[in-house]
Amino acid sequence: MDYVKAFLVGGAICALVQILMDQTKLMPGRIMVILVVLGAFLGAIGVYEPFVEFAGAGASVPLTGFGNVLFKGVKEAILKDGWVGIFEGGLTSSSVGISAALIFSYIASWIFDSKMKE
């Protein structure tokens, strides 16, 4: 049942983003920023964590989950180190995901022959 919830919630988030892309003139980069900020905001007001507990990967994998992870890292670092935590908290909390994305994209560049769009 966990897989079904994750699939439905993640699919609903993706469907809402697709509707946003189709119905507005917002560029994809701006939509990505909106999702990250929305995740951080929902985490700050305490709504996103119960959502993640319910939906699992369906809520933690999309960009809103990344924003929530950044917020949690900054919050913990501020409590531990003071205001210096603003600069280090988000990086330390999300470093594994960012590193994995870089490593796997580098490996994929070896396997596949990428070309520029013409």
TrEMBL record:
<keyword id="KW-1133">Transmembrane helix</keyword>
<dbReference type="Pfam" id="PF03862">
    <property type="entry name" value="SpoVAC_SpoVAEB"/>
</dbReference>
<feature type="transmembrane region" description="Helical">
    <location>
        <begin position="31"/>
        <end position="48"/>
    </location>
</feature>
<feature type="transmembrane region" description="Helical">
    <location>
        <begin position="83"/>
        <end position="112"/>
    </location>
</feature>
<dbReference type="InterPro" id="IPR014204">
    <property type="entry name" value="Spore_V_AE"/>
</dbReference>
<protein>
    <submittedName>
        <fullName>Stage V sporulation protein AE</fullName>
    </submittedName>
</protein>
<dbReference type="InterPro" id="IPR005562">
    <property type="entry name" value="SpoVA"/>
</dbReference>
<keyword id="KW-0472">Membrane</keyword>
<keyword id="KW-0812">Transmembrane</keyword>
